[in-house]
Amino acid sequence: MILSGKEIKRKLGKDIVIEPFNEKQLNPNSYNLRLHNELLVYDEPFWILKKKIRLKNFLYQKRD
After folding, report:
1. Contact (CB, 8 A) for 42 and 52
2. Mind listing the pLDDT tens digit for each residue in 3-61?
3. Whose CB has fewer CB within 10 Å in the chain, the N or C terminal residue?
4. 47-57 burial, b if ≥16 CB within 10 A, otherwise e?
5. 11-46: burial string, b at 16+ Cβ within 10 Å, e else
6. Sign of CA pseudo-dihedral 15, 19, 58, 48
């Protein structure tokens, strides 16, 4: 299903749930989703599932 920005806004709280909703992310033909400010990257090229996987944690800091 393809919805315009107006349709997305009209269906919010009924057929569509976007939490948290930010009207600045609503476009004429879409809604821009954002990922979390934290990115986890695997520290090893191969995984051995019996062993704990090491991760590197990167935090995104918003710049003004």
Report:
1. no
2. 899 999 999 999 999 988 999 999 999 999 887 777 777 777 766 677 777 777 777 76
3. C
4. eeeeeeeeeee
5. eeeeeeeeeeeeeeebeeeebeeeeeeeeeeeeeee
6. negative
